[in-house]
Amino acid sequence: MRFQYAFQKIVDLKSNEKTQAEWMLSSAIGKLQAEEKTLHELLDSRDYMANQLQEAAGTKTPVAKIREIQSYVEHLELCIIQKNSDVHRANDHVKKEKIHLSDKLLDEKVWLKARDKAKDSFVKQMLQREQGELDEMATVRFAMRAR
């Protein structure tokens, strides 16, 4: 006789939910990394343009060009502020997904443990049944020899 767990569909569902939570966390981490990469690119651009501004101020560069560079540096500053906010939101989302995943892991663990207990109980009953049958066979044999 084979073990069949009555709540196997629930165990499968919990396993699928855990897998989905892992994918969601992976996606959130990927988005966070993309946001951080963009932030670093903006910071590099700002530093480069700030150096260009310093060089322009030290040479015979038209004031209009200096103002243009300064305006672009200010624009980059605003972009950096916005991107910092995006990185913070992405980081919060990663934390939320980690909590969600840990909840799903716990759910799955509870159901797997319940299934394992049910299987252990089933195996114990099967062994007891087999032992009972063996005892009965031994008793019948003993009775046959005693005649």
Counting helices, strands and paired strands, the structural category is: mainly alpha
Q: Average pLDDT across residues?
A: 95
Distance between the termini: 35 Å
What is the N-to-C order of secondary-structure elements (H for helix, E for strand)? HH
Radius of gyration: 34 Å
Given this structure, which CATH class of the domain at 8-107 is correct? Mainly Alpha
Binned, the helix content reads: over 70%
Just name the CATH architecture of the domain at 8-107: Orthogonal Bundle
Number of helices: 2
**Any idea of the CATH topology of the domain at 8-107?**
Helix Hairpins
Shape call: rod-shaped
Largest sheet: none
Strand content: under 5%
Number of strands: 0
Which spans of ≥5 residues are poorly predicted at pLDDT below 50?
A: none
Protein name: Flagellar FliJ protein
Subcellular location: Cell membrane
Keywords: Bacterial flagellum biogenesis, Bacterial flagellum protein export, Cell membrane, Cell projection, Chemotaxis, Cilium, Flagellum, Membrane, Protein transport, Transport
Membrane topology: Peripheral membrane protein
